[in-house]
Give the backbone structure.
Amino acid sequence: MKLRSLAFCVAAAVSAQAAFAQAIDVAAMEKLAKDKNCATCHTVDKPGPFPNHKKIADKYRDKKDVVPMLVEKVMKGGSGSFGALPMPANAQVTKDEAEKLVRWMLSAK
């Protein structure tokens, strides 16, 4: 019975993530990424010196509690996760905007 409950919880979590990915307004997210200067360095799928959304999603998609950690990186900056180039802090991005951007990036396939 416990295994069935666990399977149900996992299925519900996967379903919720899939529903979020389907509900994303891509045009609005692209505009937000451009307005907040994310698109200056990060593309959805093109290669470049900075990780694109697909690389970010591939690295973090299945990690537990990754959204809050990535939201903090978006807002405060970071380095070393994808090489030597640092990501600057983005003080103009609110926590809500950062979470939307992170979830959008993690939905890349």
Q: What stands out?
A: The chain has a mean pLDDT of 84. The longest helix spans residues 2-23. The chain has one domain: 25-106. Helices lie at 2-23, 26-35, 53-60, 66-76, 95-106.
